[in-house]
């Protein structure tokens, strides 16, 4: 499974804690992240993370492109709902793409934990079947 990991500045420690806690599950999947978030996750966990640009420099749009090409299976995006973001239109577009392409989106630790437990059980294997069918 291809999993995107994104976090606003005030949520970076939360996503680091999350990935440390669930590293045994996440290491079985291909991880993608926006710039700084990916570096911090990799440093804290040792997980291999493909890093895009930072969100404000286009990283959200790069992940959005993968969604539009059916190359992303799950997005974990710890958003900071209390701080205005200068790239809010990019964030809204990313969320919209998740809805359009039926990509599960976790926006906080509680929903991310539900999704990671489902990943562990194989509940998202249908995503791989769809992607393989479209590629093959």
Give me some keywords for this one.
136 residues, 5 strands, 5-stranded parallel β-sheet, 7 helices, Rossmann fold
Written account of the structure:
This protein is 53% helix and 15% strand. Helix 1 runs parallel beside helix 3. The chain has 136 residues and is α/β, with parallel strands linked by helices. The protein has one domain: Methylglyoxal synthase-like domain (Rossmann fold). It has a five-stranded parallel sheet with strand order 3-2-1-4-5, sandwiched between helices.
Mean pLDDT value: 92
CATH structural class? Alpha Beta
Write down the Rg: 14 Å
First-to-last CA distance: 16 Å
CATH topology: the name is: Rossmann fold
Lateral strand order in the biggest sheet: 3-2-1-4-5
Low-confidence spans: none
Content of β-strand: 5-15%
Query: Which CATH-level-2 architecture?
Result: 3-Layer(aba) Sandwich
Helical residue percent band: 40-55%
